[in-house]
Design goal:
Blueprint (H helix, E strand, L loop, with lengths): L6 E5 L3 H13 L3 E5 L2 H10 L4 E5 L7 H9 L9 E5 L7 H7 L4 E4 L4 H17 L1
Parallel strand pairs: 1-2, 1-3, 3-4, 4-5
Length: 130
Amino acid sequence: MAEKKFRILVVEDNAALSGVICFNLFRAGYQVTNATNGQQGLEIAQKEKFDLVLSDQQMPMMTGVQLCESLRQLAGYRQTPFILLTAKCMEINLVELQRTVGISTALPKPFSPSELIIGIEELLAAGCRA
């Protein structure tokens, strides 16, 4: 029986960074769907189910935190791992966002693709044990 390919929604408004992220996730064996802003990401998530959401914080129309808040209102996304990417990691209170919004973790920009893959693998493995 084939191993399940996890589905990841990438929400990033920077086309170059989004391309790098999507390429590396695809190469690591994930099914990847891309959205260019939070509103588009929410609309896609309302139609499809993803195993993990990876989102930039600073985007037009809807921030990553607002996207996470909106996703948590959907029955299928109450426990879905959510990684927030941000260049302003020092300006956010991750513990508070984990408690109040359900952000799983934040990754400071810039980051290495291998660092991202390791974080994703850890979150998905933890979810599989739950």
